[in-house]
Amino acid sequence: MNKSQSGSNGKKAARLSPQQVTEVIKQLSGVDSVELKMTIADGDRVSTINSLGMDPLDAELRQVVFFDTKDLTLDKAGIVVRARRIQRRPADSVIKLRPIDPTKVSSKERTSPAFSIELDVMPSGFVCSGSMKNLSINDSDVKDVLAGRKPIKKLFTKEQRALFAARAPEGIDLDSLSILGPITVLKLKFAPVGFTRKLVAELWSYPDGSRILELSTKCAPSDAQLAARETMNFLTTRGVKAGSGQATKTRSALEYFSKIH
Known about the structure:
Elements: E1 4-6, E2 12-14, H1 18-27, E3 33-40, H2 45-52, E4 60-68, H3 73-76, E5 79-86, E6 89-97, H4 107-110, E7 115-122, E8 125-137, H5 139-146, H6 158-167, E9 178-190, E10 199-205, E11 211-219, H7 224-237, H8 249-260
Parallel strand pairs: 3-7
Antiparallel strand pairs: 1-2, 3-11, 4-5, 4-9, 5-6, 6-8, 7-8, 9-10, 10-11
């Protein structure tokens, strides 16, 4: 990275280089949405919550589980398989391809109502992903899969299974995957005082007591540059700083559970 800033722990927190910013701008025309993300150092978690006026009692409880081989073969191949239980709502699942080139997505996938392309932008980098979602799963089905009473493929639609079969490494099917997780997540959507956009805070709590707090906001591709400036300016005025480590929540969770599986 060409520029950096110091975090509260004295380490350098990376910023996008001018070349990366140019690449992000090029990607905007091929995506459906943009999500701006920032991971907060755990030592700054409480001060960030207080500074932004978050109320933990407004948070939604979730449980996230990933499916991969023990050595993360799917992750290495750019495939994420995930299911999620949501408090008082239907569960959901996703087959995610990451990274992808939007110009190389098939017309069949691109025109599917269940498929979308999103550009995630973080202080240290960016990644484009394509997601095939199933937004209406019985919560009991997820619990049955976690307990070994139902096969993993029951959580995914025919369209999702076809996408997986077309992209997965040879010899790997959904029901051969290991269960990685679940992990408890608190998700809070809120509108901070003095900010015109909505923010989302997600606190991922691991079994060993470690935590990851991520702040994010979504916007249309046409609004991405303005949204990035406004969001960074607002967070800076509130004293919110990016942590030195900006790995995605998914990557962190996969690596954690693969080691203890």
